[in-house]
């Protein structure tokens, strides 16, 4: 049973470019979460999505960041016009649902974004 | 605002030593509490969780944690650590509702010396 798959594992971008991070949830999971880990900090929630819906984006920066989870295919976290401060590890998690037992989140290995 | 504090940022132990990692949270309502572990180069894995019931929960690999409501704490323990326990440990909570988001502490980096 494949776990949460994130790609790429490492991504290097120059300032002003776009970064696209992909996340395929575990089989049977329809809830996806994105977290960001800045150096020397814990993981910070960014956005929570179900298929074709954004449920909670309270942790997303208002500009340049967007996320989607289409009916088919992986969830995408998109960062436009990247800046050095976007350099971080981005983790995706998935769960089968949002209830107490079924809301346990399983994490991917992360994408490490470096902005030059 | 809800928050999770992990007071030990770096811990160094010798093999067979006992481990206790502190975790305190701030939230007045019902919470679900978690400890995750991240081994070098790997993804976060769930060590154990507390939803309700017995405040002493047992997880994988000999870890346990105790929920003390009056102290808003959920400390992680292991009686005898091994070199393979070298990893980063994260305490986290969520509180249900429409969002299932996890709020994480800053993590504790544990190094076990053989």
Order of helices and strands of chain B: EEEEEEEEEEEE
**Global outline of chain B:** globular
Alpha plus pi helix count of chain B = 0
Largest interface: A-B, 30 and 26 residues
The biggest sheet of chain B, with number of strands, parallel, antiparallel or mixed sense and barrel status, is: 6 strands, mixed
Q: What amount of the residues of chain A lies in strands?
A: over 45%
Q: What number is the mean pLDDT of chain B?
A: 92
What value does the average pLDDT of chain A take? 92
Please give the alpha-carbon distance between the first and last residues of chain A.
Answer: 36 Å
Distance between the termini of chain B: 41 Å
Low-confidence stretches of chain A: none
Proportion of beta-strand residues of chain B: over 45%
Structure summary, number of beta strands of chain B: 12
Q: What's the story with the biggest beta sheet of chain A?
A: 7 strands, mixed
> What value does the Rg of chain A take, in angstroms?
13 Å
Could you characterize the architecture of this molecule?
The complex is a heterodimer of chains A (116) and B (114). Chain A is 0% helix and 48% strand. Chain A is an all-beta fold. In chain A, strands 2, 4, 5, 6, 9, 10 and 11 form a seven-stranded mixed β-sheet that branches. A four-stranded antiparallel β-sheet of chain A has the order 1-3-8-7, with no helix packed on it. In chain A, a hairpin with a 5-residue loop joins strand 4 and strand 5. The radius of gyration of chain A is 13 Å and the shape is globular. Chain B is globular. In chain B, strands 2, 5, 6, 10, 11 and 12 form a six-stranded mixed β-sheet that branches. Chain B has a four-stranded antiparallel β-sheet with strand order 3-9-8-7, with no helix packed on it. In chain B, strands 1-4 form a two-stranded antiparallel sheet. Chain B is mostly beta strands and 114 residues long. Chain B has no helices and twelve strands. Chains A and B meet through strand 4, strand 5, strand 9 and strand 10 of A and strand 6, strand 10 and strand 11 of B.
């Amino acid at each position: 049973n494949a776990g949460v798959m994130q790609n790429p594992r490492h991504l290097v971008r120059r300032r002003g470019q776009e970064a696209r991070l992909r996340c395929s949830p575990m089989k049977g999971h329809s809830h996806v979460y994105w977290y960001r880990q800045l150096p020397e900090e814990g993981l910070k929630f960014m956005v929570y999505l179900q298929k074709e819906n954004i449920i909670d984006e309270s942790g997303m920066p208002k500009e340049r960041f967007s996320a989607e989870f289409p009916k088919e295919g992986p969830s995408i976290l998109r960062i436009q016009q990247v800046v050095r401060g976007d350099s971080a590890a981005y983790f995706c998690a998935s769960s089968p649902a949002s209830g107490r037992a079924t809301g346990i989140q399983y994490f991917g290995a992360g994408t490490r974004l470096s902005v030059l | 605002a809800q928050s999770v504090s992990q007071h030990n940022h770096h811990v160094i132990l010798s093999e067979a030593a006992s481990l206790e990692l502190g975790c305190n949270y701030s939230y007045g309502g019902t919470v679900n509490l978690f400890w995750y572990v991240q081994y070098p180069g790997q993804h976060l894995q769930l060590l154990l969780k507390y939803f309700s019931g017995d405040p002493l929960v047992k997880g994988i690999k000999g870890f346990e944690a105790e929920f003390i409501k009056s102290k808003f704490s959920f400390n992680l323990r292991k009686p005898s650590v091994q070199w393979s326990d070298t990893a980063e440990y994260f305490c986290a909570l969520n509180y249900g509702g429409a969002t299932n988001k996890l709020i994480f502490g800053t993590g504790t980096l544990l190094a076990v010396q053989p």
